[in-house]
């Protein structure tokens, strides 16, 4: 079972998307991915990554 409520570090989100961490920061800035601030770092909800990928697939169809 996948846990969509899990918060990923930017580096972990980059690994899931197979992109650089700078690309993840750009996607956050462009509001393609949502993120939350936790202490002194950013976290990306797994749900946001799934929605982003679903949108890419939909656009490609």
Automatic annotation (TrEMBL):
Residue ranges annotated for the Helix-turn-helix domain, each copy included: 7-54
Coiled coil: none
Pfam family of the protein (one): HTH_17
GO MF annotation, one: DNA binding
Name of this protein: Excisionase family DNA binding protein
